[in-house]
Amino acid sequence: MKKLPKNTKMVCNGKKVNNGRRDVDEIVFLGTGGARYVIAKQLRATGGMLFRFGGKNVLVDPGPESLYRILTYLPKFNPEKIDVIILSHKHIDHSGDINVYLDVITKGGNNKHGILLAPSDAFGEDGVIHRYLLQFLDETIIIKENLDFRQGDLQFHFPIRHEHRVETYGFRFLYREHTISYITDTKYFPELIPAYRADIVIMNLIKLGASDIDHLSIDDCAEIIAGIKPKVAIITHFGMTMIRTGPWNVARQLKERTGVVVLAAEDGKHYALDKLLSYG
After folding, report:
1. Angle of helix 247-258 relative to helix 218-228, nearest 10 degrees?
2. Which of 1, 19, 221, 255 has its CA at 20 to 30 Å from residue 134's CA atom?
3. Can you tell me the distance from the alpha carbon of 170 to that of 183, in angstroms, rounded to the nearest whole number?
4. Which helix (H) or strand (E) segment is 60 a member of?
5. Is 54 part of any domain?
6. Furthest CA-CA distance within the chain
7. Residue 120 carries which DSSP code?
8. Is 18 within the bounds of a domain?
9. Is there a domain that residue 1 lies in?
10. Which residue range(s) make up the domain with 70?
C-alpha cells in the first residue's frame, strides 16, 4: 500500500475534516509542487487545487497524481461530483491528469456531465486534451481575456493573458461578496496588480530568484502583495529551490516585507474560507 506523504493534513482548524459534506466552503491543495524535478520525485504532490464553494466542486490545474491525491486527502469525496475543471495552461505540471478526470466525471462517457474551461492551445494536435472525451461533457469553454463564467453562486473572471511560454490565464472569482484570485505561472508585469485585486490571493512561486523569466520571483510576489493588499496571500507550486529554502521561511519573509499575512500552502491541507478571511 502506498504511504501517504509526511505533510499530509487531514484536519482543519484542529477539527477532523468531514470530506463528504457539500456545504463546506474551502480550498483543498491537492499538490503544492511544480516543475520537472519535483514532478519526477514527487517531493511535493502536483495535484492542483479543489475549490469547494456553495455546493459546487471546481478542480483547478490537475497535474500528475491529482486523482490519487484527491482520493487520499478527501477519502469520502466522490470525484465524479466535480462540476467544473479549469486548466490555466497546458504544461504537464498543471495538466497531467486532465484526461483522467474527464473520463472519471463522465463515467467513461456513460454520463454527460461537467464543464471544462481551458485555453485554445490546450486542444487540438499540439494540445493535451483528448478530443473524444469532449463529447461527454455538458460544455467546453475556451478561456480568453476578459471571459466571464458563472456556475451557481460562483462567478469567475479571467482578466488577462499571462506572459508565459504557452497560452496562460489565471482567474478572479466572486462568491458571496468575497473574492479569491489565482495568479498562475507568469512573468511579472504591472497589470497583474489591478487584474487580481481580491480578499485572498493565491500565487505560484516556483523559484527564489528571477532567473526564469516565465515565473514570479520572491520580489515579484512582494510587489504584487503590497500592491493588492489582500487579507491574506497564499504561495504554492514550489520548485526545488523553494523546497530547499522552506516555503514557510519565504512566506515569513514576504509577511515582513508587505505587512500582509502570507501562508505557504501544504499538500492536502484544507483552508476554510472563514478562516482565511479572518486574517484581514
Report:
1. 40
2. 19
3. 5
4. strand 56-60
5. yes
6. 52
7. G
8. no
9. no
10. 24-277
